[in-house]
Design a protein that fits this description.
- The chain is an alpha+beta fold and 212 residues long.
- It has one domain: Alpha-Beta Complex (Spore Coat Polysaccharide Biosynthesis Protein SpsA, Chain A).
- 30% of the residues lie in helices and 27% in strands.
- The protein contains seven helices and twelve strands.
- It has a four-stranded mixed sheet with strand order 5-10-7-11, covered by helices on one side. A two-stranded antiparallel ribbon has the order 1-2. Strands 3-4 form a two-stranded parallel sheet.
- 29% of the residues are buried.
C-alpha cells in the first residue's frame, strides 16, 4: 500500500496486469489486512472487470505455501503468473508468458542483470535458456542473472511445494534445476523493500513518466 507517484503499489500492479489482459488476481493478506480490503473494494468500484480474491493468512505460509494453499484456484489453468508485490515494475508480462508457452516447463523465471548479485537469487543458464543452477544469495555468484520475482508457472508446480511454511527461493526453485527456464524481462524493475530503494523508485518512476 506504499504510494508511488501518489498511487498505492497495488494500483500499479493491478493496472500492469490489466494491461496484459490478466484480470483474475489473488492476493495473500497478513499485516493490516483491513487496509488492503478497503482499497481493493474501492478499486473494484471503478474496475469491476478485475476479479480479485483475498486470502488471509493468520500466520504467513511463505511465497510457495500460499500457492499450495490455493491450488484449486489455479488447477484448471494452462499457466499462471506469480509476482512479488514489493517490486515496482512495468515489465512485459505478455512476452514472458509467450516465452513460457514456447517451451512449457514447470516454471519460467523472469531474470534481470543485477548490480549486486550477492543479494539476489542467481541463475546459471545453458544456451537455450534452461536454468542449470540456481542459488539464493550466493557468496560467489556465477553470473549476474538475477531472479526478478516474476514467474509464469504450470499448475503442476504445486507438486514441488512441501507442506507447511515454504519459500519459493529456498524450498522450491532449487528443486527445479533442469526443469525451469529463465527469460530476461524488459522494462523497469526495482525492489522497494528498503527506504533507499523506495526513494529511488519514486524518482525513477516519475522521471520515466509512466502512466496507466
Amino acid at each position: 500500500m506504499v504510494p508511488i507517484d501518489g498511487k498505492p503499489m497495488l494500483y500499479h500492479w493491478f493496472q500492469l496486469l490489466k494491461s496484459h489482459d490478466i484480470c483474475e488476481i489473488l492476493i495473500n493478506l497478513h499485516h493490516l489486512p483491513h487496509i488492503v480490503r478497503e482499497y481493493v473494494q474501492d478499486y473494484n468500484s471503478s474496475h469491476p472487470e478485475v476479479r480479485i480474491k483475498l486470502y488471509y493468512e493468520p500466520e504467513l505460509a511463505g511465497s510457495a505455501g500460499t500457492i499450495k494453499a490455493n491450488a484449486q484456484w489455479i488447477e484448471n489453468e494452462d499457466e499462471f503468473l506469480i509476482a512479488y508485490a514489493d517490486n515496482l515494475t512495468n515489465v512485459d508480462l505478455t512476452m514472458l508468458t509467450q516465452f513460457h508457452r514456447s517451451r512449457r516447463p514447470i516454471l519460467t523465471m523472469g531474470l534481470f542483470h543485477s548490480d549486486y548479485p550477492e543479494g539476489c537469487g542467481i541463475a546459471e543458464l545453458d544456451t537455450d535458456g534452461l536454468i542449470v543452477n540456481f542459488v539464493e544469495k550466493p557468496r560467489n555468484p556465477v553470473s549476474d542473472m538475477a531472479n526478478a520475482g516474476i514467474y509464469v508457472a504450470d499448475p503442476a508446480l504445486v507438486d514441488y511445494v512441501p507442506h507447511g511454511f515454504a519459500d519459493l527461493g529456498h524450498d522450491v526453485l532449487p528443486k527445479l534445476t533442469g526443469k525451469m527456464y529463465g527469460c530476461e524481462v524488459e522494462g523497469y524493475l526495482r525492489d522497494i523493500g528498503t527506504m533507499d530503494n523506495y526513494k529511488k523508485a519514486e524518482l525513477g518512476w516519475r522521471s520515466m513518466g509512466i502512466s496507466w
